[in-house]
UniProtKB/TrEMBL annotation, chain A:
The keyword Cell membrane applies. Residues 26-148 form the Tripartite ATP-independent periplasmic transporters DctQ component domain. This is TRAP transporter small permease protein. It holds the Pfam family DctQ. The lineage of its organism: Bacteria, Pseudomonadati, Pseudomonadota, Gammaproteobacteria, Oceanospirillales.
TrEMBL record, chain B:
Belongs to the TRAP transporter large permease family. The chain crosses the membrane at residues 12-41, 53-75, 99-124, 145-168, 180-201, 221-242, 248-266, 278-300, 320-350, 362-387, 407-428. It is found in: Cell inner membrane. Part of the tripartite ATP-independent periplasmic (TRAP) transport system. Keywords: Cell inner membrane, Cell membrane, Membrane, Transmembrane, Transmembrane helix, Transport. The complex comprises the extracytoplasmic solute receptor protein and the two transmembrane proteins. Signal peptide: none annotated. NCBIfam families: dctM. It comes from the Bacteria. Residues 11-424 form the TRAP C4-dicarboxylate transport system permease DctM subunit domain. This is TRAP transporter large permease protein.
Length: 168, 434, 303
């Protein structure tokens, strides 16, 4: 179980790194587009398309990390009023509900990807196919779902995740 | 059970789940999914889960959110935001409650750079709450000022609030941005007035700061030059047609990175931290946005939008009566829902009604964003209050909500002002775009 | 029996009077109210233009409306009708589409029954501070286009194609981010472009825009033979004709409004000026239909 958690955390970290790198890349792409359009009469072809796929990677690359860092927004106004046991149970229920939803997204996205292939869907200018990005969403959602149902690790590996981010 | 009752039950369950500390996104997702399963079919719900998620996350215009958050994060890392704050402090720090007023003005300044209230409150909170604590300001006043001042981020352009409204209602982003300028300044002034009044009544809230010399004022302003240049370049670039608002966010981020590297105030690890933080904040916000898209079909299938719309338009209370009821509905919803989610959820219901009554959609957009701002600081779901709490762990949550209350009243006053004098909102968009 | 019809634009959009209301009225009257249509406008059953076809295919809504150009990779063949100069004098766009539907286009509409397929009014130049009389005038200008093929055509004429969402056009034209837009005149109304544009050029062959109204095939098959017959009777070429003519009528009204405003320059190209554009468009059409399959589709459409 501990091994699985460690591997999962490593994957989550890699996905978040991918999201961060893509954010930097899309900044540069937009700057190149702006410069090209204004200075050379030659905009970067398909920047809109790149922005679409970049946003997908930014959001779903980081989605498991958001859970891993407990960054999901919740209303904790009543937290002090609830007993420790109730709070723990509610945490657990929240995580299981989240896992169910991400599992549902993964499932539905795989199905939707087959339709994208049937319809030959892709972005408008660069014709970047849609299906691979739907598979990416599915994989990241699945990763999040599994991470949510696995027992929370001790504090040690929490810092491991954060350190990993800084070193890489 | 009729569709309308199932819809109402869904909303009640949603509120219960929220109060039971289920993460906002999951609570909305869950209710939307189960609701569509009942009103249509589970297969439909699954299909919507995929298509709504994909629609939101592949919307190129929403790239502004990570870009502006990235820009804000880097501005903080390089100390640019703090210098902007220092300048405001040097100018009005010796006035009663001046530090809190400076914070609000700093929030307004940062808002001109950053489109998100979340990022504004987070950044300004990190910079200012510690400083005010140092000068023995009450935690209630300092956190209230930051939580309320931070909401200016979605009123003063650029604003993701206006971007989302524009996408939903097909209005011009530029017009909305311009329309937000004067209301933003008016609200800032009202906040400052409120702070001055409060500290005049209760001097113990905020000990007066030292008088600054002209040299100190000049030094403060000099320090703020880089960030002022960035703000002017990005805003100027938008209005001279060199880049779009979305691109301006990337240009702004690029400029602050250049400044950071040039002055060596930005280390590679700080750049990495900013990027990573931007990605995670973005995802947190976007999950709620996606979830709200899932709730939309559920409410549409429940026919509640039509019922509420017909109810409101059928009331014999005149156009302004209906406007008032709609804004009240927003106030109530805003107490529970995250701002953008609320926008996505309700705009299809109310926008046609408002346009049908002959109200200006740009003006209405400003009123809506103002009520969104109020929602950001209203219990139980006051996002900005939670954000401020995260940077001021010593101040109890209840105190922050109390501290925010006077600012909330100022927002009510502002709404009344803009309803009575629509020209305050429409003057700039109507004169600059004809 | 209730059919859910969903689209992503406000209820006041021309699509309502062009196809939605005519179809709803006809079907409900003809079935004595047994078969009803409930409209979900403004993206209530799913936001945005991108996923409309998928939603009909998956049955999230029974009927959806959309623009082929948003997912052009799906409609490669059908969108030949959009090419500049593709529609010959005296032919209608919907006739061309339905002429070729059974032989060449059906494969692009899997899982649905197209109820209407039609094209917009001819595209025009919508410019700010620039007058266009010949392709030469476009040199170096930034022109907003909605797809890869249209972008290629702008490049052919020497302009710089710029991609952006439809909602951004107003702002971009206002600030000078773009010098002009190539699209149908009805978009002037939809996006209030008349507030920022001041020069319009009409008569050049710049292509059209293809629309679809499709119904989930399983839903259609599940209906009684009688109800299917009712739907058949009020869809196809009949409904498409209504769509195309209503769009054209709106475009005419819009252009009248534009002409009435004396701040605007409206350039109606002379026959000689049109010829210059025509030759560029002909070359472009030839290059775009270079392979035999595309040529065959165009022939099917024209016969
Ligand atoms: Na702002
Ligand atoms: Na709230």
């Amino acid at each position: 179980m501990f091994m699985l958690r460690r591997w999962l955390d490593r994957l989550i970290n890699i996905a978040a790194i991918m999201a961060s790198v893509v954010l930097v890349a899309i900044v540069m792409a937009i700057l190149a587009d702006v410069a090209g359009r204004n200075l050379l009469n030659a905009p970067l072809r398909g920047t809109q398309d790149l922005m679409q796929v970049a946003l997908i990677i930014i959001i779903f690359g980081a989605v498991a990390m958001v859970d891993r860092q407990d960054a999901n927004i919740a209303v904790d106004l009543l937290e002090p009023k609830f007993s420790l046991l109730l709070n723990r149970s509610l945490n657990l229920i929240g995580r299981w509900l989240g896992a169910l939803i991400f599992f549902g997204i993964a499932w539905a996205m795989v199905d939707s990807a087959s339709i994208s292939k049937l319809l030959n869907l892709g972005t408008n200018i660069l014709n970047i196919p849609k299906a691979p990005f739907q598979y990416l969403i599915a994989v990241c959602s699945l990763l999040t779902a599994v991470s949510m149902v696995l027992p929370r690790p001790p504090k040690v590996s929490e810092t491991l995740v954060n350190e990993g981010a800084v070193h890489e | 059970m009729s569709n309308e009752w199932i819809g109402t039950l869904g909303v009640v369950v949603l509120l219960a789940l929220l109060l039971l500390r289920i993460p906002v996104a999951f609570a909305i997702f869950g209710v939307g999914f189960v609701g569509v399963s009942i009103l249509a079919s589970p297969m439909n719900a699954l299909n919507l889960l995929a298509s709504e998620t994909y629609t939101v996350v592949s919307n190129a215009e929403l790239v502004v959110i990570p870009l502006f958050i990235l820009m804000g994060n880097i501005a903080t890392e390089t100390g640019m935001s703090r210098k902007l704050y220092d300048a405001a402090y040097a100018m009005i720090g010796s006035i009663k409650g001046g530090l809190a007023s400076a914070t609000v003005v700093g929030c307004a300044g940062f808002s001109a750079l950053c489109g998100s209230s979340v990022a504004s409150a987070l950044t300004m909170g990190r910079v200012s709450i510690g400083e005010m604590e140092r000068f023995k300001y009450s935690g209630r006043l300092s956190t209230g000022a930051v939580a309320a001042g931070g909401t200016l981020g979605i009123l003063i352009p650029p604003s993701t609030g206006f971007v989302v409204y524009a996408i939903l209602t097909q209005q011009s982003i530029g017009k909305l941005f311009l329309a937000g300028v004067i209301p933003g300044l008016v609200l800032t002034a009202l906040f400052v007035l409120m702070i001055t009044g409060l500290t005049w009544l209760k001097p113990e809230l905020a000990p007066q700061g030292p008088k600054t010399t002209w040299a100190e004022k000049a030094r403060g302003l000099t320090g703020a030059i880089p960030i002022t240049v960035v703000i002017l370049l990005t805003i100027g670039g938008i209005y001279s047609g060199i880049f779009s608002p979305v691109e301006a966010a990337a240009v702004g981020a690029g400029l602050v990175v250049l400044y950071g590297l040039f002055t060596r105030s930005l280390t590679p690890s700080a750049l990495w931290r900013s990027t990573r933080g931007a990605v995670i904040t973005t995802t947190t916000v976007m999950l709620i946005l996606i979830a709200a898209h899932m709730l939309n079909p559920f409410l549409a299938l429940s026919h509640i939008p039509t019922a509420v719309g017909e109810f409101l338009t059928g009331l014999n209370v005149g156009p302004y009566g209906i406007l008032l009821l709609i804004l009240l509905t927003y106030l109530v919803l805003g107490c529970f829902l995250e701002g953008f989610a609320m926008l996505v959820l309700t705009m299809p219901i109310f926008f046609p009604v408002i346009v049908g009554l002959g109200f200006d959609p740009i003006w209405f957009g400003v009123l809506v964003v103002l009520t969104l701002e109020m929602g950001l600081i209203s219990p139980p779901v006051g996002i900005n209050v939670f954000i401020v709490k995260s940077v001021a762990p010593n101040v109890p949550l209840g105190d922050i909500f109390l501290g925010v209350a006077p600012f909330w009243l100022m927002m009510v006053l502002a709404i009344l002002l803009f309803v009575m004098f629509p020209q305050l909102v429409l003057f700039l968009p109507n004169t600059m775009i004809t | 029996q209730e059919l859910k019809l969903a689209h992503f634009v406000p209820p006041a959009h021309v699509v309502t009077s062009a196809v939605v209301e005519p179809f709803k009225r006809a079907v409900e009257a003809d079935s004595n109210g047994e078969l009803t249509v409930r409209v979900y406008p403004g993206g209530e059953l799913g936001a945005g233009p991108m996923e409309q076809y998928v939603r009909a295919l998956q049955g999230v809504a029974d009927i959806t409306w959309g623009l082929a150009g948003y997912t052009s990779s799906q409609f490669r063949r059908s969108m030949i009708v959009e090419l500049p100069g593709a529609i010959p004098e005296g032919m209608t766009g919907y006739d061309m589409i339905w002429n070729a539907f059974d032989t060449s286009l059906r494969g692009e509409f899997p899982g649905t029954k197209p109820l209407a397929l039609w094209v917009s009014e001819p595209n025009v130049f919508i410019m700010k501070d620039r007058e266009v009389r010949s392709p030469e005038d476009l040199r170096g200008l930034k022109i907003r286009v909605s797809g890869a093929v249209a972008g290629e055509f702008v490049r052919t004429m020497g302009g710089t194609p710029v991609q952006m969402a439809a909602g951004e056009m107003y702002n971009a034209l206002q600030t000078g981010l773009i010098d002009g837009i190539i699209t149908g005149a009805s978009a002037i109304t939809d996006f209030k472009l008349d507030e920022v544009a001041n020069s319009y050029t009409i008569g050049a062959p710049l292509g059209n825009i293809l629309f679809y109204l499709v119904m989930n095939q399983r839903k259609y098959d599940s209906l009684s033979a009688e109800h299917r017959a009712i739907i058949d009777r009020h869809s196809g070429r009949v409904l498409s004709q209504s769509g195309e003519e209503t769009w054209n009528a709106l475009a005419d009204r819009t252009l009248e409004m534009v002409r009435a405003d004396n701040r605007n320059t409206v350039i109606d190209l002379s026959a000689a000026e049109v010829v210059v554009f025509q030759s560029v468009a002909d070359d472009f059409l030839t290059s775009q239909t270079a392979d035999a399959a595309a040529r065959a589709v165009l022939n099917d459409m024209r016969n």
